[in-house]
Design brief:
By secondary structure, this protein is an alpha+beta fold. About 20% of the residues lie in helices and about 25% in strands.
Length: about 500
């Protein structure tokens, strides 16, 4: 299902490898003979390249989907930013997958192709940067940039440095029109939202699938504590700051482990908890500066410096939110980035803090029964955990859980509609390839085949797909600011 530009309901951001003489060679050399036949660092010296930027929530599924577009009989190579966390299939800031495209992918079929994905900064870089044609950081998959580290496998990708380029297209957790300043745009000085003229730079805006989001809470918050939408909303918008206001058996300041402005994950929570930016009386998220834990000069969150009451810690990625939740309990420090991408240190001292956050449910495998945090139910006191990805997630306690069944039938409405934005400047073979990706990414069979998505992602209703792994509810007229209703025609 593809929306009209006037609806502008979904977002994505793809970034072309450019900024050097390599870009011209990549885009014009259809022979691409040396792409996978370079020295030990796997450097790319020729071939076609598409560079993608946007939502970190979908990266694991994204890499798996990209793999499926390549010929499995040919070697597939993986690249990552030097010193970034995790493998190419984890949520590193920048990843790339290279291989020989299968037949049926347009003019580049059967040629060597590299697809690069940037998640740093989140969804807004899959929206604003795409529409404006901004030059942004991207992975530099060349022999000079990649050095000799890594072996090119998914578990041990080649480690590369960065260059810059202009996005081809992108991915975002919510519609482009929802990235309103100052709350949902990037920068310590919030960037301007897209104008109507800039929004018209999108040639297509296509919701590819729905992704459930959840409410992670640290395990030192009692298992009998009940959460509902009103309670979570009160916390996230700064109207509740201590745990005793949530439940009389609890005490201590509430720590929010959230994302920086511009994140699609944060935009999902802003919409669900405060109706931002869909109405004139929308509530904004809690103030980062209210507690005193944040020090702009030193770029440090020192949680022990909180003056009492709500403490907000902002994080640049979903993995950093996980670190925030873990360190809140265990203590210690970790690093993340501020709203403009500068390095930030977060210090939880000796730990023992009680925190709540927001994560997409593709992090369900990190919600362990014996871990420092778990996803909680709503309208009750329960948890959902996934200790073994070969078996089904487990629910304990009472309430409404973000299970596969509840999300599919419309009972779980904390969600993002992952969308794919392609600007008018992207044409020809790149457009053919990207349209093929959209088609495959929105297929229920594809979603069911990806471990991180099979229990938490659903195809969008109203299109060519129906049955299992397709949402039974939708936004009226495709408008993400409109009511979310069960579709009884399915």
């Amino acid at each position: 299902m593809q929306l009209k530009k006037s609806a502008l309901l979904c977002a994505a951001a793809f970034t072309v490898m450019s900024g050097s003489a390599m870009a011209t060679a990549f885009d014009t050399d259809t022979a691409a003979q040396d792409l996978l036949n370079n020295p030990s660092n796997g450097a790319v010296t020729t071939g076609h390249v598409v560079f993608i930027s946007g939502a970190s929530a979908v990266q694991k599924g994204f890499v798996t989907m990209i793999e499926a577009m390549f010929d499995g009989a040919q070697p597939i190579k993986y690249f990552s930013k030097a010193s970034s966390k995790g493998s190419a299939t984890d949520k590193a800031d920048y990843v790339a997958v290279a291989g020989t495209l299968k037949a049926g992918h347009g003019a580049w079929s059967n040629t060597k192709t590299v697809i690069v994905y940037r998640v740093t900064g989140g969804s807004v870089y899959g929206v604003n940067s795409v529409a404006r044609g901004d030059t942004i950081d991207k992975l530099d998959v060349t022999s000079t940039a990649c050095g000799s580290s890594g072996t090119g496998t998914a578990a041990d990708p080649y480690q590369c440095t960065l260059t810059t380029g202009i996005p081809d297209a992108g991915v975002s957790d919510v519609a482009p029109v929802l990235f309103k300043s100052p709350v949902n745009t990037e920068g310590e000085v919030a960037a301007e939202a897209l104008s109507e003229a800039e929004l018209s730079n999108f040639a297509s805006i296509t919701p590819i699938y729905g992704l459930a989001f959840g409410v992670p809470v640290t395990s030192n918050v009692g298992s009998s504590v009940k959460f509902n939408r009103a309670t979570v909303a009160a916390i996230m918008t700064g109207n509740v700051g201590t745990w005793d206001a949530v439940d009389g058996t609890e005490s201590g300041d509430i720590v929010i482990c959230r994302r920086t402005p511009g994140s699609g994950t944060q935009a999902v929570m802003n919409l669900w908890a405060g109706n931002y930016p869909c109405s004139a009386d929308a509530q904004r998220p809690a103030d980062r500066d209210a507690s005193g834990a944040w020090d702009e000069a030193s770029k440090t969150f020192t949680v022990a410096n909180g003056a009492g009451g709500l403490i907000v810690v902002e994080n640049a990625s979903s993995d950093d939110v996980v670190s925030c939740l873990d360190k809140a309990v265990a203590g210690g420090t970790y690093t993340t980035k501020d709203r403009s991408g500068a390095k930030v240190t977060v210090d939880f001292d000796n730990g023992g803090y009680k925190a709540i956050g927001v994560l997409s449910m593709d992090s369900l495998a990190k919600s362990k029964a014996a871990g420092n945090w778990q996803f909680r139910s709503l309208d009750g006191a329960g948890k959902i955990t996934w200790d073994n990805t070969a078996i089904a997630p487990v629910t304990t306690g009472t309430g409404k859980f973000p299970t596969k069944e509840a999300y599919e039938n419309g009972d779980w409405d904390l969600q993002g509609w992952e969308s794919f934005n392609i600007p008018t400047r992207t044409t020809g073979a790149k457009l053919q390839l990207l349209n093929k990706f959209v088609e495959k990414a929105g297929d229920p069979a594809t979603l069911a085949s990806v471990s991180a998505l099979k229990n938490v992602a659903m195809a969008i209703p109203g299109g060519v797909h129906s049955g299992p792994q397709v949402l039974d509810a939708e936004y009226l007229n495709g408008n993400q600011c409109a009511p979310y209703n069960r579709n009884y025609n399915d």
